[in-house]
Amino acid sequence: MQITNSSGAAGSAPFVEIRGSSSILGNNQPLYVVDGVPIESGGGDGTVDQVAYSSRTVDINPDDIASISVLKGGAATALYGMRAGNGVILITTKKGQKQNGLSINFSTSTKFEKISQVPALQNQYSQGSFYLGAYYGSSYMDPDAPYYNGASWGPALSTLRYTTDPNYVPADGATTSMADYIKYWDPNGRLVDANSSFASSKKAIAYNPYDFFQIGVAADNNVSISGGNDNTTFYTSISNHTEKGVIPLNTLNRTTFSINASHKAAKNLTFSTALNYSNTYANRKQQGSNISGVMLGLLRTPPTFNNAYGYMFTGAYRTGQERSYRNGGGYDNPYWVVNQINYADETNRLFGNFTAKWEIIKDLNLTYRSGLDYNNYYSTNNYAIHSRAYPSGYSSPLNSFTMDLNQDLFANYKINLSQDIQLTAMAGMNAYQHRYKYVQAEANGLIIPGWFNVANSSSVMGYQGENEYRTDALYYDLGLSYKNTLYLDATGRYESSTTLPEKNKAFFYPSVSLGFVFSDLGALKNSEVLSFGKLRASYAVTANIPTAYNTTTYFVQQAITDGWVQPQQINFPFMGVNGYMPNYIMGNPDLKPETAKSWSIGAHLNFWNNRLVLDGDYYHRINSDLLLNVPIAPSTGYQDRYQNAAEMKTTGFELLATVEIIKSKSVNWSITVNWSNPKSMVTKLSDGVPNVFLGGFTEPQVRAVAGQEYRSIYGLDWVRDSKGQLVINDQPGEFYGYPIPGTSQIYLGTVSPKWTAGITNNVSYKGFALNFLIDIKHGGLMWNGTLGALDYFGTSAETANRNQDYVWSGVMGHVDANGNVVTTGTVNTQKVKLDENWRFWDGYGSGFTGPSSPYIENSGWVRLRSVTLSYDFKQAVMKNVNWIKHCNLFFTGYNLWLSTPYTGIDPETSLLGASNAQGFDYFNMPGTKSYTVGLKIGF
C-alpha cells in the first residue's frame, strides 16, 4: 500500500493505492468499510490552481478505531462489490464490554509542526533587468514603477544602498513621494546604486520569504465511556481536533460524537447499532498554478521586497488596493491571499449502522444490517476586490449533500461434515443506493467591498446538478477445511447496476482461494526450526462500474472558455439568452463494467518459535474493458464516445519479515521490514487513442500510454543525437554553444517508484517503549515546475551563478531544414552564460518557457517517517493503583529527517491532490515535520 500526502496544508488529502493502479480514468483508491458497512471516502482531488481539499476520511475519529485491516487481493475483496475493486480498508470501531462498573478513557495531545524541505533561493540579486536598464536608465526596478519588471535579474544587492532623500527621482518613472514610499512601501527607503550621491551607508536587505510560515499547532482531546453486562453493552465518545496550520489562517476543526451499543433482546436475538457524527470545518488557502497562490507569489518575489511590511494600502494612499512587488499587478501578495481570499467549507456527517442478528439454531444465524452515510457540505469561495484572479471581487457559495444507503441480509452456517472436514457457508443479498445533489451560485464582481454575498453583485450565475444510482447483489461465501491443514474458499457475487444499460446491467464475479498448512505434516509437525508454514493461492474476478449517465447523450449548458477569457469565462445565460447543446461526449448504450482478473501465490513461514516470520506474495492482475473517451469522426456531431477501450496489467511482489532480536522479561526488540514493487502497465488502448491525458499542463503532462507504465511523464526535451547526447548549437549567432530545444513531447519517465520499503523497530524496556519507522521510496520521477519557473524569474538559487562561465556537456551540431540532426560528434567546449538572456528573454533556459526535461527529478527518498517514545506508568509505578487501568505518556516525531535528491519541497506532494495525476510540483504548499506530546489515561 502506497500513501502520498498531497500537501503540508491543514486538512489536505492523502492519495492511497493498494497493489498499483487498476483503472485509467476511474477511481484507483480503496474502499473504506466501517463495521461491515462501506462509507464514502472520496474527495481530495483537485485542479492545478485551487486549494488543498480534504478527503472524507478526515471525518473519522482515530480514537474510536479498534483495528484496521487491509484487504489486498481480489479474492479478499470480491464480496464487497464493485466499489472494492481497488482493495478494502476494514475499520472496526471500539465497542463496550461486559464488566463491573464503567470504563472512562481520556486522551489529550498537542502537536507542533513546521515546514520541512523548501526550494533554495538566491539572496544576492535584486528586482530588475539589465536589458531594461538601457531603456529606463537603471537596471534596478522599483516595485512601484509604472512599467515594473517582475523578475530578479537586477543589480547585486552588494552594489545597492538605501536613500531617504526626498529629492531623489527614480529613473524608472516611479512617482510615489519619498515620505509615502517610506510609509507604505519600505521603511528603509528606496534602493539606489552605492555610488549615487543620494546613497546612504545602509546596505540593501535580502528578506527571507519563508518567514511567512508559522509554527503550526494542533490539539486533540478525546473522552470515551464504556460498560456493559450480560445483555447490554455500550461505548460512547466525544472528541475535538483543532488545528492551526503552518500557513497563516489555514485551519481545520473537527468535533465528533459516537455511540456503539448492543442489546440481547432474547437468548437468540441481538440488536446493535453504531452511530458516528462529525462536524468538520476548514479554512483553506490558494495554491498551485494560481496567480492568487501563496507559494507562487511568495517565491517569485525578489529578495529586496518585503511582503510582510503590508499587503493593503490604507488612508488616502491607494485606499484598499494591494501592496505587491509588481505595483499591485502580476501576482497577489501572499499576505493578501491569506487575509483577503478565503475558501471555507463545513461538513456535517452522520454514518453508522443498525444490525439485528438472529441465531435460528445452533451454528445457523441470520443477520440484517442497514447502513447510512449522510453528509451535508457547504463551502464559500471569496475573493476581495483588487485580488489578481478576480480584480472586481468574487463570491461563490456551494451547498451539496451525499447520502448512501446500504442494506445486507445474510445467513451464516457452519457444520462438521466429518471428524476432519468442516464447512462454513454464508449467503446474502445487498442493496445499495447513492444520491448526490448540489446547488451553486457565482457572483463575479462585488459592489460593496468586503460583503461576500451573491446579492452584492449584478452578475450572478447559478448551477445545479444531481447524481443517483443503485446496485443490487446476491452473494455467497463457501469454505471447507480438512484437518485444519487444507483450506478451500470460494465466493461469488451476482450484481446489477443502474449505471449500465439494461442488457449489460447484471454480471457475476467469482473467486477461489486455497491454503495449505504444510508444517502439520510428518516430521515438520514438531520441528524446532519451522514453527508454522503455509502456502496459499487465489484467483478472483472483480468489476468496476461506469459513472452514472453515460449510456445516453444529454444536453449541457454551454460555455466559451480558453486561456484568455479565464477566469471570467463566457457562460450561458449570456446577454439574457440561455444556451444548451448536446454533450460533446456521445453516450454509449453498449457499456460493460471494467473487469479485473487476478491471481496470487504466497507463503507464510514462522521459524524458531516465531522469532522469525516471513511472508511473501506474488500477484498478477489484468484489468480489461477499461472505460475511456474515444475520439470519433467529427461528422457524427460529437468529439468522443465513452466506451470500453483499454487494458492494464499489474504485477508485483510483497515481502514482509519480522525478527525478534531480543525477547526477555524486561527487554524486547523486534524489527519488521516490508518491501513491494507494484508495476502497472498500460497494455492496450483503443484504435485512435495514442494516449490518455491524466493531468498536468499543455506541457508537461502525465499520461496513460500503451506499452508504458501508467502515469508516464511526457514533455519537451533538448535535441539529442543517436547516443542520447545533447546536441549543442554549432551555428553562429545568439544560441551558439547552447543546447537546442526539441519541438515534440516525448517520454521522460514514470511517476511510480521502482519499489518502496519500510523498516519498523519496536524496543521496550520495563515501562518504556520506542517505535521508529524508516520509510524508503526508490525511484519515481516528479516535475519540479517550481524550480523551472523560478529559473525564469531569477529567484532560484541556481540563478545566482548568472555571471559564471558554463560549458554544456554534449556534442556540437544543429538541426537542418528537414528536421534532421547533423553532428560530427565533436565534444562541446564553448563557454556560455546561464544569464538573464538565456533564462528570461530567450526563455529556453527555464522550465517556464523552455523544455521540461531539465526539471524532471528523481523523487525517491529515505526518511525517518515517525518516532514514538512512550512510558507506561501503570506497568512501572502504578501497578497497585487499581482505579487506574492504564496511564501512558508519549512523544511522537513525524518526518524528522529526510534524504532525497529532489531539490524542491518534500517530494511527498501532489499538485492535483488525491487524484490519478500524481507527479506534479508547481508551487505546492511545503510539507511539514511535527512534534507531538500526549497523555492517555483510563479509569
What does this 3D model show about the protein?
Helix content is 6%, strand content 48%. The chain has a domain at 688-776 and 785-938. The longest helix has 9 residues, at 785-793. Helix 4 runs antiparallel to helix 5. It has a 22-stranded antiparallel β-barrel. A 4-stranded mixed β-sheet has the order 4-3-6-5. The chain has a 4-stranded antiparallel β-sheet with strand order 34-35-36-38, with no helix packed on it. It contains 8 helices and 50 strands. It is globular. With 939 residues, it is mostly beta strands.
Annotate the secondary structure layout:
Layout lengths: L1 E4 L8 E4 L13 E4 L2 E3 L25 E7 L2 H4 L10 E6 L9 E13 L12 E2 H7 L15 E2 L6 E4 L14 H8 L4 E4 L22 E13 L3 E13 L6 E16 L2 E16 L9 H7 L33 H7 E21 L2 E20 L10 E23 L4 E24 L15 E23 L3 E12 L8 E12 L12 E15 L10 E3 L1 E2 L9 E2 L8 E3 L2 E2 L7 E14 L4 E20 L8 E24 L3 E10 L2 E7 L5 E6 L4 E5 L6 E4 L11 E3 L16 E5 L4 E11 L2 E11 L2 E4 H9 L11 E2 L4 E5 L5 E7 L4 E2 L2 H6 L14 E3 L2 E12 H4 L9 E14 L20 E2 L6 E11 L1
Parallel strand pairs: 3-6, 8-9, 28-31, 37-43, 41-49
Antiparallel strand pairs: 1-2, 3-4, 5-6, 7-12, 7-50, 10-11, 12-13, 13-14, 14-15, 15-16, 16-17, 17-18, 18-19, 19-20, 20-21, 21-22, 22-23, 23-29, 24-27, 25-26, 29-30, 30-31, 31-32, 31-33, 32-39, 34-35, 35-36, 36-38, 39-40, 40-47, 41-46, 42-45, 43-44, 47-48, 48-50
Helix pairs in contact: 4-5
